[in-house]
Amino acid sequence: MAVYSGEQLKYLKLLSQKYPTIAAASTEIINLEAILNLPKGTEHVVSDLHGEADRFSHILKNGSGAIKIKIEEEFGHTLSMRDKKRLATLIYYPEEKLELIEKEEEDMDDWYRITLHRLIRMCKRVFSKYTRSKVRKALPPDFAYVIEELIYEREDFADKEDYYNEIITSIIRIERAKDFIVALCQLIQRLVIDHLHIVGDIYDRGPKAFQVMECLMNYHSVDIQWGNHDVLWMGAASGHAACVANVIRICAKYGNLDTLEDDYGINLIPLANLAMSEYAVDECELFEVKHRRDEVSQIDIDLEKRMHKAISMIQFKLEGQLIMRRPEFLMKDRLLLDKIDYDEGVVYIDDQAYPMLDGYFPTIDPNDPYRLSPSEQDVMDRLVKAFVNCRKLQEHTQFLFKAGSLYLTYNQNLYYHGCIPFNEDGTFRSVHLKGQDFSGRALYDFLEAYARKGYYLTSDPEEKSYGQDIMWFIWSNENSPVYGKEKMATFERYFLSDREVQEERKDIYYKLIEKEEICDKIIREFGLDPKTAHVVNGHMPVKFKSGESPVKGNGKLMIIDGGFSKAYQSTTGIAGYTLIYNSYGLRIATHEPFESFEKSIVDETDIRSDFMMVKEFETRQKVADTDNGRALRENIKELGMLLDAYRQGIIREKIK
């Protein structure tokens, strides 16, 4: 006879409120044990989106090739390649593809009938790894009953084929076929991927970070590991002036000021006025803008170049103030405005003089170079206020905090964006902050805690200020686990021609991870088992065209930044990596560039992807092998205790 402690009995009595009878507890145990034996859900991992909403949307819709694989599994040689491509395109873009098909097909009723049967078969295959309960929650309300009738066999109908055909005929007759097809396609898209991981850097470079964030906020199951670009935007949303300046400068550099003005409603007129006032006679040749738009007037180009320079000079001043305010950040070497000889036009770095390519600095006082001019201060006050009061930006930032973190352990894998700071001897580098030393996992935990304080804390202004400064530290410091370079050489890349001084040398981490024992050390540091766990990170583009592999440490670690952003594709030679982790194993997809939605829909072209199996499981993984499975087993154990308590008479069953 089991003996229960007071705390256990208290918990079991609470549990009995949800399962008030032996029958209820028994039924739930049977249900949970059945779920444990279902195949593990498919996880989709994407990194370094950098505002490329169109590419991301397409990858999301096709599940990095998962839908094509399901079509091949279901139909094999019974469908032509043309029909398979058309079916895949329809599932990706149902509304748009239907418009084209309606113009081409002579007998739409016949096409509807054939297509509905094919989509129902696809639904059955996709749904096979889920419980009815989970599928039911995903069903569109307008068609939930009908879809269930079509998907789940009804053994009590002798003539069930006639029954199913009559349902489909009725759908077509009452002119609901088009809406029903759209609903089925969207349902397949949703359930082919059980969970989505975004391994950092949603923002900057590309033009549509806003749209990416909107997509993620509406996705059914997602987590985010913050990249340094994400944390920069989070810092800006908190009202941190140096982060605000960095965000605007990067948008200006890549021709994405529309993101701020049109998508987020940030008023940049004060900055434009400052730029035209202070830099009216300056060509700002070093501050070219990498435009994506086809038609940009010369007046706009000239204005954006001046805005680019104006905000850059403000950024250098604000960062200088921060570096002097936080000497523990160890960034004195980034104080360069006071190292300029303004008469000679040179800057001294490590006691060496470098000629400057631009010497026009109307807002800098050589005797106090880091002080903002009155007009610059006024502009920054307005911009900080605009960021803090932007409702949509705050909504997106709060989602990043709720769904995100600096790292995540999930189903025996470790996800983070950048790197673990290491010493050359393979030990974790110690970073001194707030009077303490942090390394490895503890460094991540400290930085994340202060980032959250920097955004949310209201009761302690000094702690909040330190947290905001920490977000800038995460963005650009050598010891930041999501930056991972010796320095951020922004100043040198604008003003100097010397390539050596412009170099941003990568952390020793990127050499060490070629060794399996280092990868095992990282895995153990985060509480996982090196025999089964893997590390997945992004941030540093893998130079595929130079023969570099995304797989490191004998398969223990994968870097999946392959140039999703168009800005990096000339370096990587591809258009990004994604990772699929399903019940059969881990597979990396290597993607070629995405041309356009229009070409995908009209020509039925997909992103061409090559696949590399990183690990294939000897036996198919089940829910029992996942984090959720471990939680379910704990639930089963607790329900078993409740069942025992009922049978012993310790807890009485309740009358319904």
Give a description of the structure.
- It is a single chain.
- This protein has 656 residues and is of the alpha/beta class.
- The protein is built from 28 helices and 17 strands.
- The strands form four sheets. A seven-stranded mixed β-sheet has the order 7-3-2-1-15-16-17. The protein has a five-stranded mixed β-sheet with strand order 8-9-12-14-13.
- Helix 7 (108-127) crosses helix 10, helix 7 (108-127) packs parallel to helix 11 and helix 16 (269-278) packs across helix 17 (298-325).
Brief characterization of the structure:
The protein is of the alpha/beta class and 656 residues long.
Key features of this structure:
656 residues; alpha/beta; 28 helices; 17 strands
